Amino acid sequence: MSADARHRLLAWCRPGFEAECAQELSALDSGFGGGGYARAKPGEGFVEFVALDAEAAGRIAAAVGREPLIFARQLMHGIGRIEALPREDRLSVLLPLIAEDPRRWAEAWVESADSDAGRELSALCRGLNGALLGGLKRLGRIDRTSHDRLHVALLSPTQALVCATDMRTAAPWPGGIPRLRFPRGAPSRSTLKLEEAFLVLLDAREREDWLQPGMRGVDLGAAPGGWTWQLVRRSIRVSAIDNGPMNAALMESGLVEHLREDGFRYQPPKPVDWLVCDMVEQPRRVAARMAEWLRQGWCRQAVFNLKLPMKKRYAEVQLCLGLLHEQVDAPLDVRARQLYHDREEITVFARRA
């Protein structure tokens, strides 16, 4: 087992956001004393972080388990690295390396990045995954009661980083990507953003407790109704705020009140359970508006998107989240992620603690 590999962390991320993911990891490492560095290339869809030592890598991984990174879909701790996988028999190299680690694995995934180059490896990943599971079963290394998951990250046809995650805190989907189907009847594909936000940013108990039939919500910038649709499907009554037209079928649900008003001026007549917002506007302005709703007690919780600029995106995210905390001036539970269905944006959940 390579000691150097145990210094490494691998993060899957959205292609084009490697720099932001690397900045997050570097900032976290600095909080533990620093000494590590990131390796990332634009468009690859992953970031390698080389920590000072294995202990430092473990501290970073544990911290991310408690509070996930914004720009990383999955963060994995290295076990071993292979630079020359034989194309004719990759298992002959992988299995001995994996066997050096004493753990038993609940699951084993062979993955590649969500990039053009990574997608070219998808067929190889599927074929190798079955063979790997078979090999691990023969070695007696599969234990469904374990909390440890094995990841073989193919970075090229002959290069792999073998990693581990704790299933209690790691994303439960290969690549950190929940595969959602576009629901029949939804007015727009943006509906998948809010569906993923509920799935990623809330746990099962929170979804059950906080998304109950009969609750009330407001959707700022609602038209044509993709985000409103997600609330309505949960039998939540919605005030849809937008000067544009709403989907006719959605309006027939009887759960939507369409108000042709400005989302930056509208105030609800009484507090609501949910505020959702996917307006195309400067992120600082959106963050300030969300802070106003939370500060005034107009909503219990909010989910909103921040559209990021082309440059200094990490700095803009930090500024907006800082602004949110400062302007609410009360304890906040804030969770932010760049979701798979996001593009040049991040999605934020905020609730007064």
UniProtKB/TrEMBL annotation:
Superkingdom assignment: Bacteria
Residue ranges annotated for the Ribosomal RNA methyltransferase FtsJ domain, each copy included: 188-281
Catalytic reaction list: cytidine(2498) in 23S rRNA + S-adenosyl-L-methionine = 2'-O-methylcytidine(2498) in 23S rRNA + S-adenosyl-L-homocysteine + H(+)
Residues in RlmM ferredoxin-like domain copies: 8-76
Annotated keywords: Cytoplasm, Methyltransferase, rRNA processing, S-adenosyl-L-methionine, Transferase
Cellular location(s): Cytoplasm
GO biological process terms held by the UniProt record: methylation; rRNA processing
Pfam families noted in UniProt: FtsJ, RlmM_FDX, RLMM_N
EC number: 2.1.1.186
InterPro entries: RlmM_FDX, RlmM_THUMP-like, RNA_MeTrfase_FtsJ_dom, rRNA_MeTrfase_M, SAM-dependent_MTases_sf
Listed GO MF terms: S-adenosylmethionine-dependent methyltransferase activity
Enzyme class of the recorded protein, top EC level: transferase
A Gene Ontology term for the protein's cellular component: cytoplasm
Binding-site residues for S-adenosyl-L-methionine, renumbered to this chain: S190, A223, P224, G225, G226, D242, D262, D278
Ribosomal RNA large subunit methyltransferase M THUMP-like domain boundaries: 89-162
Keyword field contains S-adenosyl-L-methionine: yes
Active site (record annotation): K307 (proton acceptor)
TM region(s), chain numbering: none
Family of the protein in this entry: Belongs to the class I-like SAM-binding methyltransferase superfamily. RNA methyltransferase RlmE family. RlmM subfamily.
Assembly behavior: Monomer.
Protein role: Catalyzes the 2'-O-methylation at nucleotide C2498 in 23S rRNA.
Protein name (record): Ribosomal RNA large subunit methyltransferase M
